[in-house]
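Hello,

Our lab assistant flagged a job as stuck in the queue for most of the afternoon. It eventually completed. Since we weren't sure the result was trustworthy after the delay, we are filing this so someone can double-check. Below is the sequence as submitted and the structure that was eventually returned. Let us know if re-running is recommended.
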Amino acid sequence: MSNQSHFQNTQILDSITGFLNHCSQSKNLRDIKKLHAHLLRTGLLFISLNFHTELINSYTTCLNRNNLQTLTNYFKCMNPKNPIPFNVILSDFSRNGLAFNALKTFSFMHINGVPIDTYTLCSSLTASSSVRNVRFGQQVHALVAKSGWSSSVFVGSALVDLYAKSLIIDDAEVVFDEIPVKNTVCANALLSGYGEAKMWLEGLELIRKMPVLNLDYDHFTLSAILHACAGLSAIEFGTQVHAYLIRTVYNVEKDMFLQSSLIEMYGKCGLVRKAWQVFNLAGIGKGRECQRDVVLWTSMLGVYGRSGHFKEVVRLYQEMLKEGIKPDEVAFVTVLSACGHTGQVNLGVELFESMTHDFGLDPGPEHYGCLIDLLCRAGQLDRAWRLVNEMLCKGHGSCSVSMWGALLSACKDCGNIELGKLAAQKALDLDPQNVGVYVMLSNLYAKFGMWDEIEQLRELMKERGLKKDVGCSWIEVT
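-- returned structure --
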């Protein structure tokens, strides 16, 4: 009987959720209020705490996404002695991307004396980290210290994650060291911060300490090790990690997450053939084969693209379509860039248009940048300039430095001094310290014998303390 009752409640929740979603989309506040009154009269509102979250979501969508009065009025109708309904609402907000509402829920609980526990703190810290609101997170951290929850590994992990995602690594390390009994989750949160900050050596040092702290390596940890190896070009250590995966991870060939990390590691270390071997073996494990996913294909496309194997990028993309894999935005960036380097203008334009027509993807600034670079490399400067204007008209914001740089380079080749000066000015507005733009503009001036302008550029670079970067290579010494 209980199963039947649970099934009926689920059906009711699904129906009401669907109705509320429809009202939210149509901004039909009157029907939401009618449903709210019906739920109160019949008692259905108290069947599931999820009803509260759905109603609040609908109200805030219709009135204002950040309407604080709506939240406050609703919370005032709830029992302030029982934190469970508040925690459910707070958790739902945090999980569903409504971080602002989650933080306001926490503030209401704190101001009105609703009991706060680890669930409340973890959800509020997760919401703070998702919107990079370090100030609010630090206030929660102060509350954690005063209320005695600092010893909780769950709260500690959420704090480490907050500081790590905000790249405040020193504070993340302090919180991690203060957790009395650590787990793999808090170690992985700190590892993630090290990776974001490109602190590869510190990441490897933490990984070496984990066995001493009685912490096991999970798949995220192993992937972080491979990313650190890629960042340091430490191919020998990366190969050892690969051997460790084969020995310890069951059916590792079917783990697309780890396989993708391996491909990235070998590719960034320059071992393209080895990356291709990993890609070929991916999905072929014990038992039935599984299909390689879009992440794996995109990783291999990226390896070929970074290594200058542009023809292979186009070939692999076509093979990917034959396998029935739908490319994502990242895959299109790689293949459009490859078309630019191989001079395949028609194919590049065709692929760009297929994003919308065939795959329902909206081209972003990166895709426009690749296509503009493609047209500039082909000497089609007028067409590239029209595309820049189209991009700006569609509300994609300002063009990137690389985009204006591509236009500037094409202006040098085509001899368009006025457009070249405009492109250089736009690029320098975005990045005044970009030495490459000064060099390209100087080359453009030199082509037209504008020596006075070149001298002015040099003086400007001296005033800003800019120098042309010296090339370097990185090798592993064993």
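-- support follow-up --
The delay was a queue issue, not a problem with the job. The result is valid. The mean pLDDT is 84. Residues 460 and 466 are 9 Å apart (CA to CA).
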